[in-house]
Amino acid sequence: MVNNAGIYEFSPIEDITEQHFHKQFDLNVLGLILTSQQAVKHFDSAGGSIINISSIVSTLAPPNASIYSATKAAVDAITKSLAKELGPRHIRVNCINPGMVETEGTHTAGITESEGRQQTEAQTPLGRIGQPQDIAPAVVFLASSDSAWITGETLYITGGLR
């Protein structure tokens, strides 16, 4: 199961509201927990794999991203905790923390045409933002039996940005 749903809204501290906070935490954190809770019911005794999609911002923590960064840091912590909790049931839980990736969401938010993209590309050793095909093989790997001895881990796929 892949927890890939998420939203992001960037705001300076002065503009953060309870609604802004709850909107992001409800989807990015509570949604992930409730989805994982339901998925666990469908794994048999052979177990399975839960892959959480977090973000480099959980540790990079850029300005105006305090709420979003906090939600993704929570995803990282939940991943480690659930790996320990669900390991005895043969359910592996891992996390992928991508850098900026060009998606429908980043286009809609205007991020892929922004100065922020240019800054990110300038700071990224590979000189570009990611594409979905940069992330998908890692998800497939973590979902497969090839990663049978991997749980509680975070894989950063960022083009070298850290």
TrEMBL record:
Keyword Oxidoreductase: yes
Pfam families, per the entry: adh_short_C2
A GO molecular-function annotation: quinone binding
Coiled-coil annotated residue ranges, if any: none
Sorted UniProt keywords: Oxidoreductase
PANTHER family: 3-OXOACYL-[ACYL-CARRIER-PROTEIN] REDUCTASE, SHORT-CHAIN DEHYDROGENASES/REDUCTASES FAMILY MEMBER
Family statement drawn from the similarity comment of this UniProt entry: Belongs to the short-chain dehydrogenases/reductases (SDR) family.
Name recorded for this polypeptide: Short-chain dehydrogenase/reductase SDR
